[in-house]
Design brief:
Two copies of one chain form a homodimer.
Chain A (H helix, E strand, L loop, with lengths): L2 H15 L14 H16 L6 H8 L3 H8 L2 H21 L6 H18 L1 H10 L7 H23 L1 H4 L5 H22 L11 H13 L4
The structure holds a DNA duplex.
DNA sequence: CAGACAGTATACCGTTCGGTATACTGTCTT
DNA sequence: AAGACAGTATACCGAACGGTATACTGTCTG
């Protein structure tokens, strides 16, 4: 019996036997490493990093602690890897777009975020909720560089648009905050109103509507 | 020696002696109950609810665990009391205003939030960061009713304005989210750029500017 | 003065925390 | 065949967790 076969059998037996364990995002085709990442994200997303114990993650993934520590070294290392995976994919979508004028760039930006959220809503909501975690919590330390990069990119869009929008005089910061605030707040609250099982979906029409609200205010 | 004299002496000695303990928001004129609340808020604000232990709060407040449990019954009870205190004060400011047309109502709303944040920025930032905490975390359960009330009030403003803004058809929800997102995101990020010791301050001019951005978009 | 009572401290509870020492297994390389 | 090596499990660590049993203190009320 191969190692991977063993692992799968064990996971299946575990999922069927202990019964309190719920393996949601994972399936038996995953290796242990991927299953740990998926289960950890799922638990962090729904209960928060601090409120989830290593033990709990191991139980959900059907492995034991040394296995987790073999791959990630520490709980913080596991968090870092989840963040890296999530943001790498988000940035990939983000960097590929952004040509054209302000409105087009803002649409691409908004679209990248909502598209990513649609495909990986647990990852997105977890990553973005860390945006607002306390400054002395290690989760903030981990997410801060990524956040700064997103924020910087938003500021950039407004800076490049000073021709169309006039001298910015620091307003690009406020615009960037407002824009990100609008998107994040909308997506985070959207998660509330959706059935917990499915992904969230932001239709084209809503994207346009959000952008319009940001560009022209509430007087349509 | 009276009980309160004893308490003050002990607190002073503790603050001076153990030296790692930092009593920030409290002073010796407070009773134990108030000192516990102040120290707990301070710690929750900077490290997060889950990451702070009862022991740590007691040490900061210069008391022992049974004292804390005498007043609040549990860690969750302590959180509830902090939330109640904070939001009661915020709602008081919020309910007193709100007459006039949309723009005036929105200004009052924004002003109430920023004024409260200016006077109690740790409380405000803590309360609002819970806005984005995971849904299955007990902190979200505790803050949810308060959040719903704020959100409902924002929606109300837009609903009352359907005369001026035309048929809302559900857009009032999106407007409310955008408005709250703008304010919260701005204030939360503002905390980043301020010296950690002092309070944050939102001058009249900035309030107007934020409102203008929301009402009319970015094309000034 | 006697009892009730809020407030507080000492000392302790069982549980869970993040993390690890050790040893075994299978696979891959030489 | 021999050794290296990644991966995994059993069993354990000290520390911290949230919470409490008990007893003492001072104050207030009859």
């Amino acid at each position: 019996m191969s190692r991977s076969e063993r692992a799968e059998t064990r996971a299946a037996h575990h999922a069927g036997g202990v019964s309190l364990t719920i393996i949601i995002e994972s399936n038996n085709n995953m290796g242990n490493r991927e299953r740990i990442l998926a289960c950890a994200l799922d638990l962090f997303y729904s209960k928060g990093y601090d409120a989830v114990g290593i033990q709990e993650i191991c139980q959900a993934a059907g492995i034991t602690k040394p296995t987790l520590y073999h791959y990630f070294g520490s709980k913080y290392g596991l968090l870092e890897m989840i963040l890296k995976n999530g943001f790498d994919e988000l940035f990939q979508t983000l960097e590929d777009r952004g040509g054209g004028d302000v409105e087009a760039a803002l649409y691409d930006f908004l679209s990248a975020l909502t598209d990513y959220a649609g495909a990986n809503y647990k990852a997105y909501l977890f990553l973005m909720s860390l945006y607002y975690s306390p400054r002395e919590n290690e989760t903030y330390r981990a997410v801060q560089p990524y956040i700064a990069r997103i924020h910087g990119r938003a500021v950039q869009i407004f800076e490049r648009a000073s021709g169309k929008l006039g001298n910015m005089n620091g307003r690009q910061e406020q615009f960037a905050m407002g824009f990100l605030g609008l998107i994040n707040h909308y997506l985070l609250m959207l998660g509330d109103r959706q059935p917990p099982g499915g992904g969230i979906c932001v239709p084209e029409e809503t994207k346009r509507s959000l952008l319009h609200q940001f560009l022209h205010g509430i007087y349509s």
